[in-house]
Amino acid sequence: MRDHLQQQQPTKEEQQRPTPRYTQHEKYKEQEKAYFEHIIAEVGVENELNFRLEESKEELTGSALQQVDVDGGGQDAVGGNGDNVGEASHKSSPLSDTDIGTTIQTLKDLAGDSDVLTTDGFKRSMAEDLTLFCLIDGQSISNAFSVEINPKKTVDGLKKSIRNEKPNEFRDVDPDELTLWRVSIPITDEDDEVPIVLNFFDEKKKLGPATRLSKVFPEDLPEETIHIIVQRPLLPQSDDLNPEIAALRKQLSDMQDSSITIGIIVKPERKVICNWSAAIDTVTVSDLMKVLVEFYPQYDHDDYVELHFYITRSSPSEPIRDDEDLRRVLRVAKTQSMKQLTISLATPTKGFSAWTFKDVVSEYNLSESTDVGIEVLPPFVGIEAAPLKSDLEKEVLRHLLDEVGLRVEVMKLLGANEATRSMVVASFLLAATKLFKEDLYLASQRDLSGRRGNGALDFSVHPRETHSYTLGVTEVKKENFPQGVAQNIVQLEAALTSKKRKRGTYEIDGEEESLRSYGIVTDASQWLLLECTLHEDETVTYRMQELERTINYSGKWQEDAKFVFERLVWLWSRMRDEIPARERYSRKAISPPSDRKTTS
């Protein structure tokens, strides 16, 4: 025994303090657990059961611990039958080596590997330290480091552990000058060189110095995750440049030229698609989109596409809503010397094919009841037959009949699928476009996105000069004409609303000008013509008309085909006449779309 463990006489208060009695009876189970937690706290063990005997001798005193009957034999710690726990007196002599060893072993046996209720009310193994993965703000994941610490420690203690773990990083920085943030950032091999910037994360919590870690991390920690972001204190203004200040000033100097060159990655791709250079102070989202549409032409002229930025591939995205958002992202990228910028492109509206006629009736308020057919649409009156008197018109009609005749001869149209029917439909559309080749062109499978829908169009008509908007859309259906009409309704609105820019008020002869697009729904035999009108208040209305004649390709179909073609030519003339109004409304595109399937 050491001198400071010499025998001491118990005080009056100690003599009156009840000595806990431990049995195996169920009602004392929770009391036993609380008592041994109290003893562990008194001796400063703090969740570690691997005691050293010499340390226990220094901590344990006769007034702090009592011998206990761990076998539950009914004897008091001091003696007697133990029926009245509060009446036993304390043992006043110091504990022997054997007593201390027995008490320590008792604690180990009772705790074992099971969970123990901590003083903070959370369950955690007494032998388990926290392993926290930490990262200094602005560094890449490959610089993450771990700190092992007892969960009963406070955040202030964690700061000291971090300071001791990274003495070079925090040279001349006191632990209390550090700021710690609770985060949850997955660690992946793909992102190990990507700098982590705290300001980009919404899910974060600043930790106060007096908070116990068991409250910050009450449950099992996720693996392969950054748990703590460490922020350095702001550097004081000084003319005495240390290396860190010099590096920061160099970064500031580099930013003053307001330019950046960075690799662009578009999810889900994993490789850089191009290296992009931009002037940070003046760059616009439109500048970035011009580069992106060279690789993703489906988003050309799409004002509804959404841009999102990712700090790492696995982190949550942040929207790039405007030019200032983009400039902020690029400034951070330049400050952190980022070599790659990961973004995604998305259109929030649903696909054209997902719309049913019931959906359209409800969405466009076509009727108070959704249990109606396509006849609910007002009639498209005034459809006329183009005269087809010129030599060119007669030649185009003759060529159309010969081409359709060849297709009827070599193809089985009865019960044919949409792809086969599309080949016949294409002959009619090509012939009509041929008569307006100076003003219009025909496209196949061109992507369109608008206010309520997006997707590829079977066929579409566009102005030849600018290519920047859609005048007409044809939907080919084998069957289910109501759904075909529903798709065409959403497509025609998209053709008029693919630009978000608010339309001004244009006047012709003192009247406000409306914009129109034209549609066709057909199976190559039955033909429905539609008109969509966008009004000044941004609402849309529709008219529809089924042509009186149906082309029966198993009989004498030529006259019926001529009847349909004459009305298609009239519809194409309406599209051509719409160009001046659409030019005033639409932003002009500089170049034609890339990689389009076009036929003229």
Automatic annotation (TrEMBL):
It is found in: Host cell; Secreted. Residues 1-29, 68-99 are annotated as: Disordered. Its main location: host cell. GO terms for cellular component: extracellular region; host cell. Residues 1-16 have a biased composition (Basic and acidic residues). Keywords: Secreted. Residues 71-83 have a biased composition (Gly residues). This is Crinkler effector protein N-terminal domain-containing protein. Residues 130-231 form the Crinkler effector protein N-terminal domain.
